[in-house]
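The authors assume throughout that readers already know how a fold can be written as discrete tokens. A single example would do more here than another paragraph of explanation. An entry of this sort, consisting of the sequence and the corresponding backbone structure tokens, reads as follows:
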Amino acid sequence: MLTTSHKLRLSRSEVEDFLFRQAEYIDSRDYESWLSLFTPDALYWIPVRPTDTDPETQLSFMYDDLPTMVARCERLLAFGTAGQQPITRSSHVVSNVRVNDATSNGELVVHSRFHVTQFRRDVLKSYAGAYTHHLVATDEGVKIRLQRVDLIDCDGIHDTILQIYL
């Protein structure tokens, strides 16, 4: 159950630890722990353009709710998934973390930068850009309500399908 009656207050160091833990869960393929960081109504969005504001009416590279995230993670872990032979590996670096004031509905908006390297089928691919996280206080601790991922090469040619979360 979400507790939104008070504004979430975290130091930059606490937010950094949270974001670093999120990255480590993905890199270690601990998707169960990664998914536990999200609220039941969470959204994970990679818009096609940094100026996009509505994932319902604009194109997206990825726009997942929690059930879709769960299904995608199950496919990533399924031994028989052809696209994961051999498994995709990743390394996330998160930096330049900036914590904004909490919004009127209690969400703490956090901006950061990332660099993700993915290794899949003898190909090393790099992704870089900016994260925007909307964090909320819940009875289970801090959770992500929205994670927006803006790629610096969003208007470039993308010849592969994302296999991992960025």
